[in-house]
Design brief:
- The complex is a heterodimer of chains A (158) and B (367).
- Chain A folds into 2 domains: 115 residues, no CATH class; 38 residues.
- Chain A is 36% helix and 18% strand.
- Chain A has 5 helices and 7 strands, in the order ββββααβααββα.
- Chain A has a 3-stranded antiparallel beta sheet.
- In chain A, β6 and β7 form a beta hairpin.
- Chain B has one domain.
- Chain B has a 17-stranded antiparallel beta sheet that branches. Chain B has a two-stranded antiparallel ribbon with strand order 4-5.
- With 367 residues, chain B is mainly beta.
- The chains are: A alpha+beta (158), B mainly beta (367).
- At the A-B interface, β2 and α4 of A face β13 of B.
Chain lengths: 158, 367
């Protein structure tokens, strides 16, 4: 399967509007074939360069070698994007999206958090004490949850 | 039936100073000339294209009847003005296009990289240019060979930092081209005043991202900087004349476009700081023309670098002098703050005069 992805040394995410999100360093590729339904650059045009509209009012996606050539031509013009061919076994767990949805944004957020390991300071809302410092998001949230549970217990006794 | 499609993007123009009408390839599909589609799209907050049309009037001709004679189309000096929130990836691109000089990159992966962007000096008259595309539903405008005349960076108290640039083009045309697929690259969180620090005459101000030492100005509530290149539009006889046969009955009409947007021999860099309180020291600095070194750090979100570093834009003005402004007027009830305005002038201490450093995780020089 041919996919769009960021180049291995490209450090920033690229959002292809209406198509999907390419994460840094080649992560979270999107299928070229799926993208062809949404990208004018991957659709058939007449001799004047105008898009051909089918009976349903949609664009006619390119196929075969024409699609490959158009995809590579587009990727060459967009800094950081490349067309890669992945085998079936490489697809599993590679983050390739053959269908697009709102979870693309979540995937980007999860990847970003996993890479950045943000410095987080959490304060117990009851005691005002710092319960986690320079922790991961998960650690900080766990600590906060423990503190809240303790506060609930104390409230029950009172 | 109209379509909804909106966006603004640019693509680098390989010709320094911009590709003019005569040099652009012949157009297809009704276009007079072909201008490349944008490849870098920004989440702008507005934008307009002004053809800056000039017509020649014939209304003082005596023709023996009362109606005035229609004017003749003459020249067009395309310009566009676009506001956008201060994303680091947008700001670094605009700084490169505005200053025009070489980008010196230091640092090695996986650490952050530091880009020091210099301004063009004498001996160079052409800024790095770009083609712009502004899509307003069915209106797909392309402006070729744009050079930035003015870049205003404004970091207010209560909102995102904003950038607004005015660019002069060499040719503009509403195109028949199919709408391209926009891509947003490196758009994370905008820079804003909340995360900024500013210093007067810091004890040390090493190259970014080294920490500046010295007394932080404690009550900054606003920063504005405007860089103006003072471009001059230069149409030359017999060059860059577009002709279009238009209307019924058909009329052959011409527009004359500039051949270059010539860089001004002098640039203007002005800036203003807003303090939350009155300041005797800055009143005296204004009155007596004190020279101060000003360093402003604009800090962005963390990056996936080792060690983890934050996006940063550091602005250093080596020779800053106030030329106006001051404390607010006396008031019974209103808060009294201070807004001083000044310029960044020729510095004997540093050849860069004004230095912009950008910390990101990109190893290649900015274009």
């Amino acid at each position: 399967m041919q996919v769009f992805r960021t180049e291995s040394d490209f450090p920033e995410q690229i959002q292809i509007l209406g198509v999907g999100l390419l994460l840094p360093h080649g992560q979270n590729a999107v299928s070229v074939e799926a993208a062809s339904a949404r990208m004018s650059e991957l659709s058939k045009k007449d001799k004047d360069g105008k898009l051909i509209v089918n009976e349903q009012g949609g664009w006619e996606p390119l196929t075969g070698k024409a699609l490959t050539a158009a995809a590579k031509d587009w990727a060459d013009r967009i800094n950081g994007v490349e067309v890669a061919t992945l085998k079936e076994e490489e697809l599993r767990g590679s983050g390739v999206r053959q269908e697009f949805g709102p979870e693309d944004t979540l995937a980007a957020a999860e990847y970003y958090a996993s890479q950045v390991n943000p410095v987080v300071t959490r304060t117990d809302p009851v005691s005002g004490k710092v319960v986690a410092e320079e922790a991961t998001v998960e650690e900080a949230m766990d600590a906060e949850g423990t503190a809240l549970a303790a506060a609930d217990d104390e409230g029950g006794e009172g | 039936m109209g379509t909804i499609a909106r966006g603004f993007g640019i693509t680098d123009d390989a010709v320094a100073g911009g590709t003019d009408f005569d040099t652009l390839p012949t157009g297809t599909g009704g276009n007079l000339k072909d201008v490349p589609d944008a490849t870098i799209w920004w989440p702008v907050t507005g934008g307009n294209v002004d053809a800056t049309l000039a017509t020649l009037s014939r209304e003082d001709e005596v023709r023996g009847r009362r109606p005035a004679v229609s004017p003749m189309p003459f020249r067009s000096d395309p310009a566009l003005t676009v506001p956008v929130n201060a994303y680091r990836s947008v700001m670094e691109k605009l700084l490169k296009k505005t200053l025009g000089g070489a980008d010196t990159v230091t640092g090695t992966a996986p650490a952050a990289r530091v880009h020091t962007i210099a301004a063009l000096g004498f001996g160079s008259v052409a800024l790095p240019a770009f083609h712009a595309q502004i899509i307003r539903d069915d209106l797909n405008y392309k402006v070729a060979g744009c050079s930035v005349n003015r870049l205003t960076m404004n970091f207010p108290l209560d909102n995102f930092g904003t950038l607004e640039f005015e660019a002069f083009g060499l040719y503009q045309e509403p195109m028949n081209d199919a709408l391209p697929t926009p891509t947003l690259t490196g758009i994370t969180d905008p820079l804003l005043l909340r995360d900024a620090k500013a210093y007067f005459d810091p004890t040390t101000s090493p190259a970014a991202p080294g920490a500046v030492t010295g007394t932080v100005i404690p009550d900054i509530q606003g920063v504005e900087i405007t860089w103006t290149n003072n471009l001059t539009r230069k149409p030359y006889a017999g060059r860059n004349i577009s002709t279009r046969v238009i209307g019924t009955p058909a009329l052959s009409r011409k527009l004359w476009y500039p051949t270059q947007n010539k860089l001004g021999a002098a640039q203007d860099v002005t800036f203003a700081l807003t303090f939350g309180n009155t300041s005797m020291a800055q009143e005296l600095a204004r009155d007596y023309g004190q020279i101060q070194k000003v360093v402003i750090d604009l800090v962005g979100p963390p990056m996936a670098t080792t060690p983890v570093a934050n996006e940063l834009v550091r602005i250093t003005i080596y020779n800053a002098m106030w030329t106006g402004g001051g404390a607010d007027d006396l008031s019974a009830r209103d808060d009294i703050t201070t807004r001083v305005e000044g310029g960044a002038f020729y510095s004997e201490a540093d050849a860069l005069d004004v230095k912009f450093e950008v910390v990101n995780n990109i190893g290649t020089a900015l274009t």
